[in-house]
Amino acid sequence: SSGINAEWPLRPGSKQMAERILLIGKTINFIRVVCRDHSPINFPFSTVATTNQGLNDIIGPDLNGHVSEVYKITSSHLIGLLKKKYLLCEHLTAIRDYLLLGQGDFIQHLMDLICKDLSGLSSSLQTSMLQSKLETAQRATNAQYHNVDVIRRVSVIKLEESGGDTGWDVFTIDY
C-alpha cells in the first residue's frame, strides 16, 4: 500500500482511466523522488493546458486519448531514465551472466579455480580467498569487458554453516 489511492466518486471517466491516471502520478512521483530526476517530461499539449480554453480541450471528449498519451510518455521517460542513468540493461545482463551462470567462460574458469576448495569442509573456506579467485576469473575471461560498476558489484558470500557442510553448501555469488 503506497498511500496513494483514488476515491471512486472523484474519478473521471471509467475505472480503467482512473487507474491509469493514478499510475501516471505514481510514475512521476517515482521519477522525481526516487530517481531524483527533475528534468521536464515533454507532453505535446502541456502549453495548451495553461488557458481555460486549452484545459477544456483536454478535458473534453478525448480525455481518454490524452490520458493514454500521457501514460505512454511518462512510462517512456521512466524507462529511458532507468536505461541511461541507472544502466538497467547492463545490470540485467550481469544478473544473467553471473547469477544465472550465463557467462560460460567466466563460470568455467571460476570453477577450475575453486572446485577443489569447495569440495572440502566449509569451515576451511575463507571468503577473502574465494573473492580473490572470483576477481582472477573476471580478469582472465570476457567478464573483464563488463562495465566497471558491474564488475565491482559481483562478490562471493559464504552462507551460514551447519555441521558437516562442504564449500558447495555455503558458497554463493552475489550481485
Give the secondary structure arrangement, pairings included:
Elements: H1 15-34, H2 52-59, H3 63-84, H4 88-99, H5 104-119, H6 127-140, H7 148-153, E1 155-158, H8 167-170, E2 171-174
Antiparallel strand pairs: 1-2
Helix pairs in contact: 1-3, 5-6
Account of the 3D structure:
The two termini are 28 Å apart. It is elongated, with a radius of gyration of 25 Å. By secondary structure, it is mostly helical. It is built from 8 helices and 2 strands; from the N terminus they run αααααααβαβ. The chain has a two-stranded antiparallel sheet. Helix 1 (15-34) packs parallel to helix 3 (63-84) and helix 5 (104-119) packs antiparallel against helix 6 (127-140). 14% of the residues are buried.
What string, H for helix and E for strand, traces the elements in order? HHHHHHHEHE
pLDDT averaged residue by residue:
87
Largest sheet: 2 strands, antiparallel
Which value, in Å, is the CA radius of gyration? Answer: 25 Å
End-to-end C-alpha gap: 28 Å
Q: Got a strand count?
A: 2
| Global geometry | elongated
What count of helical segments does DSSP give? 8
Descriptive labels:
175 residues; mainly alpha; 2 strands; 58% helix; elongated
Characterize this entry briefly.
The chain has 175 residues and is mainly alpha-helical. The protein has helices spanning 15-34, 52-59, 63-84, 88-99, 104-119, 127-140, 148-153, 167-170; strands at residues 155-158, 171-174. It starts with 14 loop residues before the first helix and ends with a strand.
